[in-house]
Amino acid sequence: MSARAHAPSERDPAQQAAHFRHVLRLADTSLVLGQRLGEWVGHAPALEEDLGLANLALDLIGQARLLLTYAGELEGRGRDEDALAFLRDAPEFVNLTLAEQPNGDFGHTIVRQWLIDAWQLEIYQGLLGSADSRLGAIAAKALKETRYHHRFSSGWLIRLGDGTRESHDRVQAALDCLWRFSAELFCADEVDERMQAAAIAPALAELAPRWSARIDEDLAAATLKRPAAQPYPWHGRRGVHTEHLGHMLAEMQHLQRTYPGVRW
Fold it and tell me: CA angle at residue 32 from 41 to 159, to 5 degrees?
């Protein structure tokens, strides 16, 4: 249902704030990951992969636009998608920390993409039955795209992991480096609990085993080893980021910050 139709959020300011933040988290993750993938345009190993990564980036930016527009309506402060994307500082972003990590080599990008694709598959699938029908409709569209994204990333993960010694070692090293950020994916807080109680979002604890099983299946096909759990000092969904996000936003927001209100 629409922001106006969702009466419980309107009557309860804390619930409305949680609703806004939940949608913003989804939006920011897609926006930041889309921006990272856009950095590959013109630099991928081959033309086909260049176009593939560009298409993924466009899908993610499209998802972000829908979600940011809705988040702005839920917030009720008159901020549109451009204001939310270009006029917030890094501590105000609530994306997954994993999404903001630098591209590294092609294998590093594939591992990052694959981990998030598998997460988004579970999140969007769980949102199809949301009590918020507008969010459910956005999730339905995003889910179709995410299924393709996962086919792309898991296909390359298997091709590289089960390829040459060098490609295997590089992808395993990328997995070992990025795995620590996966601890955030299903770490629920008050926002998640409120959304679950209102039947707006699924319980993260119920999604985690399905994500884990999907991950293990792909790793087995790629002949890669699942890393051990590692300490996790960041929490991007709560505004605690690595230093990489600020550098990325400086580039992404440059035009809007230099020429406020510009349209193109």
Answer: 55
Buried b (16+ CB within 10 A) or exposed e, 29-47: bbbbbbbbbbbbeeebeee
Structure tokens at 171: 């992808």
Please provide residue 94's backbone torsions phi and psi, each rounded to the nearest 5 degrees. -130, 40
- Whether the CB-CB separation of 114 and 37 falls below 8 Å is answered with no
- Residue where the block lists tokens 């010694």: 165
What residues have CB less than 8 Å from 205, skipping those under 6 apart?
A: 186, 188
Q: Which domains does the chain possess? A: 8-258 (1.20.1260.10)
- The type of residue at 43 is H
pLDDT in tens, 5-48: 443 445 689 999 999 999 999 999 999 999 999 998 888 787 77
Which parts of 39-132 fold into alpha helices (H)? 47-75, 81-86, 106-127
**CB environment 95-105: b (16+ within 10 A), e (fewer):** bbbbbbbeebe
Give the Cα separation of 138 and 50 in Å (integer).
27
Rg (CA), the chain: 18
Cα–Cα distance list, 27 to 7, 43, 62, 120 (Å): 22, 26, 10, 12
Which amino acid is located at 139 in the chain? A
Contact present, 98 and 116 (Cβ < 8 Å): yes
Contact by Cβ (8 Å): 32, 248: yes
CA 126 – CA 130 distance, rounded (Å):
8
Name the nearest CA neighbour of 226 among 244, 241, 211, 237.
211
pTM over 0.90: yes
